Amino acid sequence: MGWSFANSKSFDKTACVAELRSQRRFGEGWELLRSSVVGNHHWYLVKRPNGISAIGLDLMASGGRNEGWGYKSMGEECGPYYYDCPLSFLDAASATENAIANEWRLKVRAHHARKTSQKAFAGQVVSYGSDTYTLVAPAGPRKGWTVTNSSGCRYRMNFKQLAKASWVNTEVA
Length: 173
Fold this sequence. Notes:
The chain is α+β, with helices and mostly antiparallel strands. It has helices at about 15-20, 25, 85-90, 100-115, 160-165; strands at about 5, 30-40, 40-45, 55-60, 70-75, 125-130, 130-140, 145-150, 155, 165.
């Protein structure tokens, strides 16, 4: 399926999320149980008319200067390649016999376990882009880490960058 975009500059991210949470989107017999926005991912837990609750994902993006925001929807049975779904959604969703959905749920749990076990500390080496960086010290509240690259240049790596980095070692030598 493709993307759906509003043909209005005033349809911003907030309006997009409100539309995605509206009852008219789901229709009669469907009930939105929970929803959460993680970056540009709108996760939702919905109860279907047959009583089964399932997880869905709306990818959201800006259409640029001339269009508003848009979205692309998919269910867990598609095995979306995104794993930042809140764990509470997995715990509340009905059990499924769909192999793809079950495999995706395992990957979501693994993603959260990996995030929890990877605590940043001074001396930690991470790979980001085409370079490696050593974490020097926290840059301050909500500012990420001061890092040095392989050439010794200092930078600030924010938390979003750090979350996307690959951890090279897990203990200081």
